[in-house]
Amino acid sequence: MSSEMLPAFIETSNVDKKQGINEHQEESQKPRLGEGCEPISKRQMKKLIKQKQWEEQRELRKQKRKEKRKRKKLERQCQMESNSDGNDRKRVRRDVVHSTLRLIIDCSFDDLMVLKDIKKLHKQIQRCYAENRRALHPVQFYLTSHGGQLKKNMDENDKGWVNWKDIHIKPEHYSELIKKEDLIYLTSDSPNILKELDESKAYVIGGLVDHNHHKGLTYKQASDYGINHAQLPLGNFVKMNSRKVLAVNHVFEIILEYLETRDWQEAFFTILPQRKGAVPTDKTCESASHDSQSVRMEECGSDSDSSEEEDSRNELDSPREEKQDKENHTESTGNSLPH
């Protein structure tokens, strides 16, 4: 080999050697089969299984909402056809049958909430009022212990509340307005499961947005006052992807929906926001074993934050739920289905 070719040969050799070293480093950095696949914790496994269940039930929830909208649209059309004489251009309102059931939002927790949570409670009450006004079977709506921060916030931001119709807004405590034997406080800490709604009773929902700070408070209050208590039969029909804590308006709307359909499962799946990851209880068992195997294969070595995954899949299928979800997705209440 000539002296002229020697430098070029050495340079080529060095380049080849560097490429070989780089390829070796890249190869060594790749996880080998059976290595680098860290075991997934039980907590991660449960979240992955619930996520998969939530995705599988998306279409079911969407279909139920579509069916409800179609049913109500058909009812309106039938009503208009039966009542219209051909000249009436006004929209005919559905036949409304007022329920004798009394539904009370207990606002006696005013001093336990900061202003931010008071504002959230105000929005939830506004939604309850609106839903009751348009319901097919509206309830006798009571707002008790109304005062303090809540009243001040309503005076400043919603002055029209003084003209609300079909609602009893009282500064007195509910125990001063309703006979004790007629009261039933809704709290998930109660051992009593509510099977049916008794329309002669008055059901109390705790008006508390507390972010899980006051566990069992509504149950304690019911016990202290010697009031009957019960929890909605959520666990009998629904398996949820998150806590059983629902906002005031969710509980209110579930009861309105049940009065219309007389079907707890339909009421839960119609009202519960998708971020709750609700699935029928009879479908969770049959898919759990299959999911646990497939998740291990697909998610091996994954250490992503499941809370971010949950946030990314909280897409609502209707504008109504999107608005409701935005209002309540950070809220937890001490009522109805509290801790």
UniProtKB/TrEMBL annotation:
The keyword S-adenosyl-L-methionine applies. One of its GO terms (cellular component) is nucleoplasm. One of its GO terms (biological process) is tRNA N1-guanine methylation. It comes from the Eukaryota. S-adenosyl-L-methionine-dependent guanine N(1)-methyltransferase that catalyzes the formation of N(1)-methylguanine at position 9 (m1G9) in tRNAs. Probably not able to catalyze formation of N(1)-methyladenine at position 9 (m1A9) in tRNAs. The active site is at 210 (proton acceptor). Residues 89-279 form the SAM-dependent MTase TRM10-type domain. It is an enzyme of class 2 (transferase). The keyword Translocase does not apply. Residues 1-90, 279-339 are annotated as: Disordered. InterPro entries: MT_TRM10-typ, MT_TRM10-typ_sf, TRM10/TRM10A, tRNA_m1G_MeTrfase_euk. This is tRNA methyltransferase 10 homolog A. GO terms for molecular function: tRNA (guanosine(9)-N1)-methyltransferase activity; tRNA binding.
